[in-house]
Amino acid sequence: MPEQDEIITLVDEDGNEHDAIIYSIVEFDGKNYAIVIPVGEEEEEEEEAEAFVLRIDQDDEEGEILVEIDDEEWEKVKDACMEEMIFEEEDQD
């Protein structure tokens, strides 16, 4: 499984490569998801960085791949992540 803070190279549908950092890995509904932030030429503040959620799946050779998710799955994962963040903040108080 990819590691948090690991820099990876993503290949888009046009074959273009983009470097990104794995910000976090979360588990939801029995699946693992990577929250990735593109690595820009200029460093951005964490609050301004655009993040993407990709599902971690297995390819035909049993290797791990990151897969784009549809809007419905994204909403479910986003809601679960927000709930988790709220509970973590409450635990710190």
From TrEMBL:
Superkingdom: Bacteria
InterPro entries documented for this protein: UPF0473
The family this protein is said to belong to: Belongs to the UPF0473 family.
Pfam hit, one: DUF1292
Record protein name field: UPF0473 protein SAMN05660649_04883
